[in-house]
């Protein structure tokens, strides 16, 4: 963990400030390991997302929450004050679909694949002959239970301004439930904002011929049967419990119990759908299955934005825009359809915004945060307004994921997930200076050249202020 | 040169055209054509008036109403749009759900792909309607759907309105997996014999009967006021079979040999359902009387045979022989390429069996319409029917005939001249997109200024900001 521990945080201060600060430290250390929990970012431009930006204001963070925001805000005396002159404060960004913090799904490594007799063939002992065998179904897995805090991307994402992810288990038709995670904590449990946030459902054929379901229509039929069964369970179980002597006991089926739970919680269902055909199919199935669906992928949404908006179903847009496979045969014929798709995919967010459909973004396998920002800039070049882009990363993402009471804006009472940047966060040259997650402070530094001392914090504010004039707003 | 043409044609397929562009009026008038009505002879120098997608009038003494869009078909032949009774086009993913012996839970209608270029290819062959079937890997396969080839429309606009949904059955070598096996380590699937295929069908319908009874009992007891009843589970596999038993879903059965054909007809009789069509039915000529008596239609190939053991007794006279004994017969494609020249496939019956030209055309128009239960709306050029038409430059039974236009619901979905005309434009668009990508890739390659990596400070490097005052009282909540 790279949280500032009391020792790390306070030693240099002790050296610098002597006994008086030691006195302070012992006080602020009560029950908190000495970690500061009160902050005030002053003189900063504050993009609250909840309302218009505050050109010069203060954000007060207290014990993990945003305590106050505005132009004339009382600063708690124990707060650490960060001079935000020339800096811009944003709500923490949300990556609404990633495997960040999760172990790789089993069976994806080469060794496991080599065991299979032939591509597409299911591993021995996993042949399903129908829906009753519950193939590729593990909805009881919850991402929150599988967090790997050692994932190096956690720090990389955080340093770039991402404070929150929807981390999704992968593999199969019902891989498990995705959890909303804050990207900081001592232990795995500290990360979890909402463990049962989303149920991904892969509407893809599993391939192969000898295990159910191999075809796409098999997957669709299977998911339909699972929802039938879950709803049957909801009806049958209470009757059975109340009248034990009246009918045969119900067979135990973990899948229908868990799926019924997701229905009762109104947990969002992520239906994978990237091209226009898949999107329209998913909209139809969502209506038929009566599930609180969210589209996952959505890259050809530019073609069917109107239908998406009419359905009131939100979209998580994959920011890994389509590109030609790196190892594609250079001689191979490329269809106009794929060329158009590659050309226009990045116009999807603008089209969705124009049509009035709600959407958020996910990194979709992009390797680094800089690629995420690059993708968003591409969407902006294709017409997406910067305000809409920011909303998609913050407030709208929080609303879609059902955590808008806690996340997504800079408002009193929200979790103090806050990003301080030296300019427009989408600008290529902008640098993230500070990140707060659950009110815990992460100071972000550029890697110092080896010959220069790293201690240049005092100049930082002034430096940023001069840079600020050049940063386009 | 050939490559350029091929690529241009390929481009055309990639295009989602705007059907009936500029066709603002809902009245269309086709004039000066030879009209092959199928039901009431051929009309020379005839006209067809189309209003709101339906055929409003057919004859020689019609005049184009004011404001009508006129298609002058001088020297050309208009026939009903071709109906392909056995097709696997426009399906996303595998057309077989191969693992279960009974895969009736899957439905082709769930996975229609309106962007499939085969739709456009078929349109270019004069096909307007196709029966999209599940594959033949299972004794009882998936649910099927009849579609109109409305290229450019979404999947929801493809199904033929009011057409009875179907289900695929399959007999013989394919459902018993005779010609391919599972990978090593995977147990072979039951059934492995024709006896087993019959048993699977019998078992499935026995279950379907019980399932229906279970629901009937439940509904009866519930409506009698009984409390605390646990409802039966909904079974996506058995529901379509209950529909078959109720006559609400057509059975389209893939079959080859006479013995298995008789087997299925007996099983159907025993369980009280009808087989709507026997598909392929290559030995149908051996049991044509029994097929005719059962009321099943026969949808066969013109002249494919000997591609596997069970196809050795196929003969090119099959269609005509079955027809002679009173079976409603159609010629199908089972293949997107074959579907593009079903007119020629039908014409082969003239050559082989001396069928009349009109009877030959019936094999791909009215007869498949009857088999699919859509003959009130398709299959001939009659007043009141859908204006689903194919316009050829020559008699469609000629090998030289080429489709000029294909209309569905009175809208032009394929127009050869328009297709050819737009090829340069599409080629240009394609080149522009390729150039744009190339340029973007080159810009990417240019050395970028590398911004320093953002990284958290190491412990000990951290510096505290100054603290505001020294008061220690808890001000939590202040400033709200």
Question: How is this fold's topology laid out?
Answer:
The complex is a heterodimer of chains A (473) and B (480).
Chain A: H1 6-17, H2 19-28, E1 38-46, E2 54-62, E3 65-70, E4 80-83, E5 88-91, E6 93-98, H3 110-115, H4 153-159, E7 162-167, E8 178-182, H5 188-191, E9 192-201, H6 216-242, H7 254-264, E10 268-273, H8 276-289, E11 293-297, H9 305-311, E12 314-318, H10 336-344, H11 348-355, E13 359-362, H12 369-381, H13 386-393, H14 395-400, E14 418-421, E15 432-437, E16 440-446, H15 457-468
Parallel strand pairs in A: 1-4, 1-5, 6-7, 9-10, 10-11, 11-12, 12-13
Antiparallel strand pairs in A: 1-2, 2-3, 5-14, 7-8, 8-9, 14-15, 15-16
Helix pairs in contact in A: 1-2, 6-7, 9-11
Chain B: H1 2-14, E1 27-36, E2 42-51, E3 54-59, E4 69-72, E5 77-80, E6 82-87, H2 117-124, E7 127-132, E8 140-148, E9 166-170, H3 194-223, H4 239-245, E10 250-255, H5 258-271, E11 277-280, H6 288-294, E12 297-300, H7 318-324, E13 329-331, H8 342-353, H9 357-362, H10 366-371, E14 389-392, E15 403-408, E16 411-415, H11 416-445, E17 454-456
Parallel strand pairs in B: 1-4, 1-5, 6-7, 9-10, 10-11, 11-12, 12-13
Antiparallel strand pairs in B: 1-2, 2-3, 5-14, 7-8, 8-9, 14-15, 15-16
Helix pairs in contact in B: 1-11, 3-4, 3-5
Q: What sort of overall outline of chain A do the alpha carbons produce when their principal axes are compared?
A: globular
Number of domains of chain A: 2
Determine the fraction of residues in helical runs of chain B and give it as a percent range. 25-40%
Helix content of chain A: 25-40%
CATH homologous superfamily name of the largest domain in chain A? Metal-dependent hydrolases
- Percentage beta strand of chain A: 15-25%
Keywords:
heterodimer; A: 473 residues; TIM Barrel; 2 domains; eight-stranded mixed beta sheet; 15 helices; disordered N terminus; disordered C terminus; B: 480 residues; alpha/beta; 11 helices
